[in-house]
């Protein structure tokens, strides 16, 4: 092959390679554009099916449903921000005949639980003609009960787990473990009590007494909320009712912890008399849900370790 033909073939191959590369780049560009459009449509779909999608004007008179599902912590689906937002929207709607709180929660943060309870009380006072029903499914215990105790009526299934009116703080001690492993603890603090209940140090009696006072204080707030809300409906001694025990739904009914037995559908149909149910439950944004699915929930659990919890 002559030098001239070789150069021509080389240029042709280079040109063809460039064309193929451009085609590949174009295809990838189209792919990423389609992916971007799909992402936008996904976000639009989530928005349209989210808490703002309910067209209550077309729904007519209804029972307004608000879910309280899972552990009650800030940033979760059961956070006070989301639950109270749903409650406010439900009460504001002129077609709402009653509000139904559907509960399935073992408890969680005493602060978040108190926020929800306080908002239920406030909204009841602001809308005296709109009754509030709480219906416990599997579990309505501890903070899950605290959050909804101010509802006008509380229902549960006969097999539901209800109660646990108490406060706990979880911790652990690794003093002997680090000694056996030959680990030296190096801790510097500013403030004599900054290392309170450090798991790598022996527990001091005065520290334990301080934490116990803290838990007792939170427990008193919980008990006061239950007594204020339930009043004469309670049927039992303080030791029996407020010692942290859990009961089945039928036992809780005998103790006056709840008012009746039934499912959300039963309460809407037979008690409220309005089985047209409109869901006002806000949902977490997409990024929050993705973060939780990839381990953010685990991170929150680690951060919250050692904080008081009503559960």
- Tally the beta strands: 8
Main sheet characteristics? 8 strands, mixed
Derived structural class = alpha/beta
What proportion of the residues is helical, as a percent range? 40-55%
| CATH level-two architecture of the largest domain | Alpha-Beta Complex
| CATH-level-4 superfamily name of the largest domain | 2-enoyl-CoA Hydratase, Chain A, domain 1
Task: Describe, in short, the structure shown.
The chain is an alpha/beta fold.
Written overview of the protein:
- The protein is of the alpha/beta class and 311 residues long.
- The protein has two domains: 1-49; 58-170 and 201-304, 2-enoyl-CoA Hydratase, Chain A, domain 1.
- Helix content is 50%, strand content 14%.
- Strands 1, 2, 3, 4, 5, 6, 7 and 8 form an eight-stranded mixed beta sheet that branches.
- β3, α5 (143-146) and β4 (153-156) form a beta-alpha-beta unit.
- The longest helix has 46 residues, at 3-48.
- It starts with a helix and ends in a 7-residue tail after the last helix.
- One of its GO terms (biological process) is proteolysis.
